[in-house]
């Protein structure tokens, strides 16, 4: 839809801390009115009774959020409906985290928030204010791959590679949580990451090697 | 996703006031079902009240019960020492739900409030009485393999998807809520509603009422409890049928029993008559088979879920055998 191109969920980086330009605010107001009509006719009609423009403009305010992503602090101003996944990929160009299903069914978007693995597609970025996020880009130590990344390469833990960042983030968490003590347990605790190429046996082998190697993950 | 206002109160009262006053405001906790529904346009709240800053995460002993805060994460509850010691059935049910990632996000209160996974509820192009009251139920004549065999109506045959809820129904849990008119307690088995003529109303919560905790009372079932979940794949799928079975056994005789099923009704389905059929009987497959027959009274299937009429009683027997240590 052309409209979506004109009206991205998040504003460009450069505008973060500046008051919005008058013309842009006008454009945003108009666009948001259009969106309201396009998406929620019921809502829009009701809003008309309540001084339509003010109400819609208020709904479109940006929310200030501070996030630490891969060790770097980001002060951002975000539209509330931006998911953590879209923030990472579309705004911060951290495209290592993949969008598979976008509905929490595939695990391709797995990242760590405060050390815990989560589906970044099913959480709003504004809900993560003040938290520390680690993505696949933050796992390696400079040019030295993380042991799990090494193990995935060694054991052919992927074919097309699309699910791999999510698999690796989940695999690291699986060991940290203490759920990698048997093949069966690994399979159960990795079940939130779907691999359409069917690399599962090799993924289990990669995780076992890292776990048995006793390296810090 | 539709646009919405976002607020993040730090006090229960502020959260309750906001949702009470604004007809189109709703609470958000983990968001794992709500955001899914918002992305698909199934629900379109105008205001989200993020309750994650409210002090509702504790798991503690409280007057003979384990009190679990509404914001305690499913994954945290499943591995909590007190829960594992006192209510292993609940931990098993939680572990059977979703994936490790989702359990790290989903809360106990949110788990209760999740919506059915009936595909017609999610498909905004098709009629659904739950999504748009009065439009009809597409599932009754449609693909109803996942649907209810108990307690349905001619308006809706959807099932409740929770695993946790099945254990809480079996364990006589109580839901603590706080609302504009004060605090109250709702027995867990009365928290969810059957569809009747109003399938769009799924719980007995009033507008603005906030779940603050769940109490699971002390019991003697910790030694003999089992949650069995039968699904299309080994993990990370909703239940076709699930059974929460808990027994108090003395000298090979059943002193007390708790039994509930998931995947069979619009709410977690407690089987009190079958429980009565177990009490005082010897621990045996025969006893369990008889109880399963009682449990299935009144069951009725649709075109594609006939298999549940056989799968459900067999699952009850299997769960009871495992709980009793016979399997």
From TrEMBL, chain B:
Protein name: FAD binding domain-containing protein
Pfam family, one: CO_deh_flav_C
Alphabetically ordered keywords of this record: FAD, Flavoprotein
Taxonomic placement: Bacteria, Pseudomonadati, Bacteroidota, Cytophagia, Cytophagales
Entry keyword annotation includes Flavoprotein: yes
Residues covered by the FAD-binding PCMH-type domain: 1-221
SUPFAM superfamilies xrefs: CO dehydrogenase flavoprotein C-terminal domain-like, FAD-binding/transporter-associated domain-like
InterPro entries according to UniProt: CO_DH_flav_C (IPR005107), CO_DH_flav_C_dom_sf (IPR036683), Diverse_Substr_Oxidored (IPR051312), FAD-bd_PCMH (IPR016166), FAD-bd_PCMH-like_sf (IPR036318), FAD-bd_PCMH_sub1 (IPR016167), FAD-bd_PCMH_sub2 (IPR016169), Mopterin_DH_FAD-bd (IPR002346)
